[in-house]
Design goal:
Layout (H helix, E strand, L loop, with lengths): L14 H16 L16 H17 L5 H18 L9 E5 L4 E5 L8 H17 L6 H13 L1
Antiparallel strand pairs: 1-2
Helix pairs in contact: 2-3, 2-4, 2-5, 4-5
């Protein structure tokens, strides 16, 4: 079977109906060959990306307007990765240095935010809040809402 099927189960309500739906999905899938059933917790929500991008945008516009958004984001992600490493909790998917054999110098590939685990994305939001405060950033309404939400959850 070439297509991945995902059935998300939230809560225990009407569990029998949910399990019957999973059973039916497996039965359909097995007609095309072997299937693999994996039970896992859902990863981080993509909404976290929009949340920390609002904060990065404020930092960019107020403190580093002369640079591109992507450049400021790269620096912030790099600083966050270094801080996590210093704390003894490096990112699960850290950046890497790769040797460029033509220019004879290392090239740094920063960690990508799309590979942040849910907890790492939350910590990144906290890091952005602290960094913004250090830089005297006045948060826009969307960014302030993001930061407040994460401070309340912590």
């Amino acid at each position: 079977m070439s297509k991945e099927l995902i059935y998300r189960i939230e809560g225990l309500g009407d569990l029998r109906t949910k399990m019957e739906a999973v059973w039916a999905m497996v039965c359909r899938g097995i007609q095309a060959g072997a299937v693999e059933v994996v039970v896992r917790r859902p990863g981080r929500e993509l909404g976290q990306n929009a949340k920390f991008h609002a904060m990065i945008a404020d930092i960019h516009h107020q403190a580093f307007r002369g640079y591109s958004f992507d450049g400021v984001k790269a620096v912030l992600v790099n600083q966050f990765a270094l801080e996590m490493e210093e704390q003894g909790t490096p990112l699960k998917n850290p950046g890497e240095r790769v040797w460029d054999w033509k220019t004879k110098e290392p090239v740094y590939v920063r960690p990508t935010t799309t590979k942040f685990r849910k907890a790492e994305a939350g910590q990144f939001i906290e890091f952005l809040g602290a960094t913004g405060a250090e830089l005297g950033v006045e948060w826009s309404e969307p960014a302030q809402a993001v930061y407040d939400e994460y401070r309340e959850a912590a």
